[in-house]
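Q: Convert this sequence to structure tokens.
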Amino acid sequence: MLDKTDKKILNALAGNGRASIEAIAESAGLSPTPTRRRVKQLEEAGVIKGYRADIDPEKCGLEMAIYVFVKLQSRDRRSIAKFEQRIMELDEVQRCDLITGVHDYILTLRLPDMKDYNRYLRQTLAELPGVFGIETSVVIGNVKNSHQILTGV
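A:
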């Protein structure tokens, strides 16, 4: 179970994955040695899964953020496995979540423009195995994108 100090460490790293142990220690109210030990324990426990660069997709030419809601024809194991296997092969799909409600999955895509999405929809998404329906929402602006993952600290 994470205590308040662990949560402070995680929030410091979520805000800056390249923060020094000294900076993390200051945020957590600890000295560097116990902070280093706690970070190592969090890594070994799999709480910290890795460190990544926070890349701006728009500056890489991927102007459009798109949410695609997918409904499958059948929810049997074979259909789900075939769909999910294919999704894992698609670089344009940044995230795929199994969801409750009317749809089965929500995909997060990044593409250059609507022309590219139109092509991708017709040539890739519509051809995914077991797909019964697709609905799309285009992100028109971002209101909040928090790096803080744990509240109450």
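The mean pLDDT is 94.
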